[in-house]
Amino acid sequence: MATATGETSLIRFPLFLTLMTLFLQPCLSSVSQSKTSHEFSIKEATVQDLQLAFERNQLTSRQLVEFYLGEIRRLNPLLKGVIEVNPDALFLADEADKERKAKAPGSLGGLHGIPILIKDNIATKDKMNNTAGSLALLGSVVPRDAGVVAKLRKAGAIILGKASLSEWAHFRDSGAPSGWCARSGQGKNPYNLSADPCGSSSGSAISVAANMAAVSLGTETDGSILCPSNSNAVVGIRPTLGLTSRAGVIPITPRQDTVGPMCRTVADAVYVLDAIAGLDYDDKETIIASKYIPRGGYKQFLKPNGLKGKRLGLLKNFYFSFDNGDFDHLFSALRQGGAVLVEISDASKFFSVYSSKENYEGIAMTAEFKLALNSYLKDLVVSPVRSLKDVIAFNNKFSKLEKIKEYGQQLLLDAEATNGIGKKEKEALINLAKMSRDGFEKLMKDNKLDALLLLKSDSFILARGGYPGIIVPAGYDSEGVPFGLCFGGLKGSEPTLIEIAYAFEQATKIRKPPSFKH
């Protein structure tokens, strides 16, 4: 698909969006009620629904983009799930419509003509910024699209805009709340505006949950896809490390960072995964992980009977003692679908493998962040900052201006104080690998499990070993805040996890649109 490119724009999001909306107002009025002139409902529509509407001439990509721009204008001042919209979005939509009309190769089906929001730490070589939510990177120019963005463009997806996030992917300060960044402020959970939206891919989850985009991309180092998906009733896929490229993504640590879809349904997430998974020579981990990608992609594993015969590990005596509601009906749905729930009797023994007086993950990650970020910043074509030290100095200077509420930057300071991978860091890395080997891998293999049932708080189990997980909406607590059920597996087990997650979703159909409750 053709792309309009240019120098990075410094247009601030609220002003630009206001001007764009005024320009589009005659068009927006026709779709403001979420329906086209042919009475096709866009709200809650899946990728398959949208493609069918394209095929039946009930909808165009332009109408779809206009609708989402209208919803962003209406909802984003409250939710702050979007940092910036793509000024070329309508141009891209028109190009998609032309290609579909001409039946150009690849223009019928898949993600072609589908708008997607990209988390603001994933580079797009266009008129938008790429800042990880930080004012320090406003005006920086990336050398190229991130690897996953290049694949999305090749698939014909429309880059609608940038989703907000917890600043620096929640690696600025432990005291900063989830969903906050200096560029857009505090993101809100659309199901309960006073509830934690969770981070760091908060905006990606908020936006698709509230129908401000069809699908979205997030990133995860430890919980940053699984946690906001859990809290905002969306499906999140944390892929096996290296299954999707991290090239062009503002890093925390290449040892744990991964890029994955965040969507309203398992099928939509799988369509996005099919588009972004695969080899990228700018990320050597994709060379290793590409062996896991099945011939024919992942959509073939969207099976309604996918639970049949699956062995699912259940740490029941350890879990489900909190006020998220009764999980028994969820376990019943899994069993009725043909799954075998294998109750792990000694959960405390399993978790003891991960216990330590030392925070090995934090030790390794802090040093790795400095190395990875400095490398990323040096590769930028233009940038106001060229090192972590520069970022810290910028934050110190800006906080004195008192233009916005600023949080601390202790995590950045801790990282700057490190000096590469020394003896302490090497010891931490050895222990992290041992935890994964003697913990999750041993549990899975000894019990012959296809997946382990996890909660978002267990993201560290998957993160430390680079394992995949899929989280699916599972219910709502007494305050209306969603929660999900995560299925975690060994490296490369995405086909099995997709079968399980899709069958569970189809059997329960728990997700509902947000209530915007105060």
UniProtKB/TrEMBL annotation:
What species does this protein belong to?
Corchorus capsularis
Q: Read off the Gene3D superfamilies from this record.
A: Amidase signature (AS) domain (3.90.1300.10)
Q: Which SUPFAM superfamilies match?
A: Amidase signature (AS) enzymes
Establish whether keyword Signal is in the entry: yes
Q: Mind listing the UniProt keywords for this protein, alphabetically? A: Signal
Signal sequence, start to end: 1-29
Q: Which Pfam families match?
A: Amidase
Protein name, as recorded: Amidase
Membrane keyword on record? no
Residue ranges of the Amidase domain?
64-453
